[in-house]
Write the structure tokens for this entry.
Amino acid sequence: MSYYLLIKGINGFGNMMSVLNVGYHLARTSKRTLVIDWTHPEWKIGFDEYFTFKENTVKYLELNKFYEKVANKKLETYPKFFKDNLNKNLIDLKPTIDKDNNYGEYFDNCIKYAEKKKYDIIVFSYNWLAYNDIKSLWGSLELKTPYDSIIKDKINSLGNYKAIHIRNTDIKNVNLYWAIEFLIHNKDKTVYLATDDNELLSKLKTQFNNIVNYTTFYDDKKPLHIGERTIEEKCKVNIDTLTDLYILINSEELKITPIKTTPYMTTFSMLAQALI
């Protein structure tokens, strides 16, 4: 008999990794097979296109294979409204979770029922959880070909470098004194600037000729992680996101947005900081 823990991704990459982080450890302790559904509109293409797990880290089944295994089987699912909606994303189902279950109770029950094996499938999601022991999850992941070599080549092309992350579209910085200070202090060093704001990037590059960025921007000027994209564009956005993260965490020094300069800290910055 197989028992599954199906992770439903929601919101941006930082949020999805925090949910996966908790789900990964829960799958291991409960000895459930981990399944990951990242077909949420902000990631769209899914987890299995980009990642796989190293051997002997966690029992894992790709999403498409999972659907094949559970098709036409009478399996007990928690929460029950997922029984006929396993392939739906959280944009459609999150309001139902909020209406039919206290969110805190839902989270607690997922953990409790995962251990007890009362349900064949536990569908687990949350808006944001935590990065406790995130390096254990990160160390178990492998980037698939050709993305691994694409990102490695970009990192190698930078030589010795420092990095900074500025999210400045849907989360606006009150001011950028901290970024300017960092760039002035490192004006003789290559600095990779990861940002979702092309106008800000262009402005800073006119002031500092040591800035490097590999992101593809689009004419609609919408935040990259939430704009409407074709499949090809969305894949490029996803790879740019992963490239930025790997570059940030492999830098000699990383500067992220101070919480006092924005309404709230970005999970992408927090994730990068946690993985250093």
